[in-house]
């Protein structure tokens, strides 16, 4: 029976917790009663809070740096995404809503003007921090006809106003625990990298970063995360994505919906998530 779309929402989870095992358990439980399937209407949204202390909040500099990262790695990120997610109405590149001219002139003027515009958006000294951060988050987003900001950007800062997170909306859906884990790791490494990246040194650089540079940065960041974030297949997955999607366009896609779901089902079988695999659970590669 077809039940329509189902959204899986996790509770807040610490990076140092056994979160990968939990994701595997969730997919096993769901697969017992449902057949998982993903299509172009599905996506994976990952919210990242400041951490590692559960009570930690993003500061002004944190938000500026995460915004810098969203612009800085945009072109590189496109190389890891299927064409349908490179330009998607529900997860548009951040430069569509803010600093569009500065982004397009990076090859001529460098990153300095764009970075300066982000710093200026945070507002003047003397205004309460809470108001400055709220204005910053709203200012990064386009405004609807009724005057309210629209959340449909690759990196969504409006969630900060509600639950103190930054949301990464760019990735496609997941129908296996393995793919879900990889999508979490990409969002997490992008976020953590931005908090520590030497953007001051990058201000004078001209041109956009490559997908290969993003992969190397993601792996460098992964090795700085808690041990429970380790995932041996992550780099291979990133490189496979880069190779698979390198030539996709509005007239060519490498994988059909059927192809994608066949691959996801194979991953579920390897994980031991498919019901018929329960008797062979001892041989599962899942944690």
TrEMBL record:
Coiled coil: none
Highest taxon of the lineage: Eukaryota
Pfam families: Amidoligase_2 (PF12224)
Basic and acidic residues composition bias: residue spans: 257-273
Residue ranges, annotated region (Disordered): 257-287
Signal peptide: none
Matching InterPro entries: Amidoligase_2
Protein name (record): Amidoligase enzyme
The organism of origin for this protein: Chaetomium fimeti
